[in-house]
Design goal:
Two copies of one chain form a homodimer.
Chain A lengths: L7 H9 L6 H21 L3 H17 L6 H8 L2 H9 L37 E10 L9 E6 L19 E5 L5 E7 L4 E2 L5 H8 L5 E2 L2 E7 L6 E7 L18 E2 L1 E3 L5 E4 L2 E3 L3
Parallel strand pairs in A: 1-11, 1-12, 8-9
Antiparallel strand pairs in A: 1-4, 2-3, 2-7, 5-6, 7-8, 10-11
């Protein structure tokens, strides 16, 4: 016989999970249920508030499709995505830190040779990008595979233009035998995350803005090393302290130096962790 | 400047919520974020597991429509619905306890006179239901409005039959001047909650069955009293100890007495809480 009250109900759900065959699923479910119930008890959640939560999740599910992932956006603005990235990618202090992948990564970016202009017609101030890829012992990571992607002067990625026929400000490159790379692009700009859905309503209700500071995405792969997914941020960006998705790490912020001709230069060296 | 690590990120999200204008929303969001992060840290949630969670919520959103609410079902099987019901409906010990509304309540049930057969053609063993409605001081609650609904001998509610043209085993009645009621119906049977979606997969992965013990739903309204939403359960039901949605309370279980002719009789007295 069961007799539910607020003290007993959590124990009862925990008992019911006792026969979960997968030990990791069991561990996750036990922790999830306990924290979910602790939250509800702590705020003394009412039935009316509970229903608002159900309706919020329903709207979040219904706006999600192949092009838009509102649950990831929700996880992002609650700091859960970044927390998971940080925990999953703990590395020695000498290594370049990871940050969120973000929703604008695509698999089939075009290939470029070192020195090429990956902007490929995207509008913005010209920016020269260069650096090196090394291992923790200082060894060059020869022929590392590099993917880069970024926003244009309007703060938009190529995939956000419905009429764009080719990839812009996005590409794959291969470092040279000394692990060095260089390419031309444009200056990345700050941009708001999509905020015309439930997550935008949550940001508004909590008096938060939807902006991310300007950044250039890197994904770096090399045999024998852990894949690095990160951004390089731009010093003095107005949104560094309040990134809507909590992705900023101090070690990833650097000066993008303005040149006499109004173009920019970004130098950044990456350090990979051996597998 | 922000510099995210697992210790700092929660503080950072909390700071970002500091300007939430509605104090209750602020309280709820602060507690939610802290417990969500504590959960992720406690299990050291990986990016792969996080993505499985995102995909689970997405499937839950996509199967939800006007006829099916999979997020409520998820809340039910995690004990959150019942916890919220119990917290929202704390009453003096003398009062009848509340339990979950469930997904099969409808607004426009047919009206019946006392003594009528609410089964209205639904199949099952005949069952006579009778009792009284009183207040905490023992006073009769005259002309209380009663809604009842229940499953048939197959464990199905009328709304689960696609071809059913009229409501069955469901109705509205009004108690007499002494707060007494009686009506004819059928014996309620145990039934499984819908388990052909994500929530069913979760139950299967955690080695849980989807069954609810047999019960008759009551919703009782009367001026000057709190609305009571509850069930009456049947003693010796095989699922009393393992209700899939954790809705059983000992005070709501009673004998449904089998009569010499094979029919049943259920007697239950309700005590309402004054507003």
């Amino acid at each position: 016989m069961e007799n539910m009250n607020t003290n007993h109900i959590t124990e009862s759900v925990i008992e019911r999970l006792a026969n979960t065959p997968d030990p990791r699923l069991k561990e996750i479910m036990l922790s999830l249920v306990q924290h979910l119930h602790q939250f509800a008890r702590e705020v003394k959640l009412t039935e009316v508030e509970w229903l608002k939560g159900i309706e919020f999740l329903t709207r979040t599910g219904h706006i999600t499709n192949a092009q838009r992932q509102e649950f990831i956006l929700l996880s992002d603005v609650l700091g859960l995505s970044m927390l998971t990235v940080v925990m999953t990618n703990e590395k020695p202090a000498a290594c370049t830190q990871a940050t969120v992948l973000g929703p604008f990564h695509v698999d089939n970016a075009p290939h470029y040779a070192l020195g090429d202009d990956v902007a490929n017609g995207a509008q913005g101030q010209p920016c020269q990008v260069q650096g090196s890829i090394k291992g923790v012992q200082g060894e060059a990571v020869a022929h590392a595979r590099i993917k880069v992607w970024q926003s244009d002067e309007k703060g938009l990625y190529d995939v956000q233009y419905a009429d764009r026929k080719q990839h812009q400000a996005r590409g794959k490159l291969t470092a040279d035998a000394q692990g060095r790379f260089h390419f031309k692009s444009i200056l990345a700009m700050p941009y708001p995350i999509p905020h015309d859905g439930p997550v935008g309503q949550l940001l508004e209700a909590t008096a938060r803005h939807p902006w991310r500071p300007a950044h250039l995405h890197f994904k770096i792969d090399a045999p024998g090393y852990e894949t690095l997914i990160t951004h390089v941020f731009r010093k003095n960006d107005p949104y560094l302290a309040t990134d809507a998705v909590f992705g900023v790490r101090e070690s990833l912020v650097t000066d993008w130096l303005e040149q006499a001709d109004g173009s920019y230069q970004l130098d950044f060296d990456f350090v990979l962790n051996p597998v």
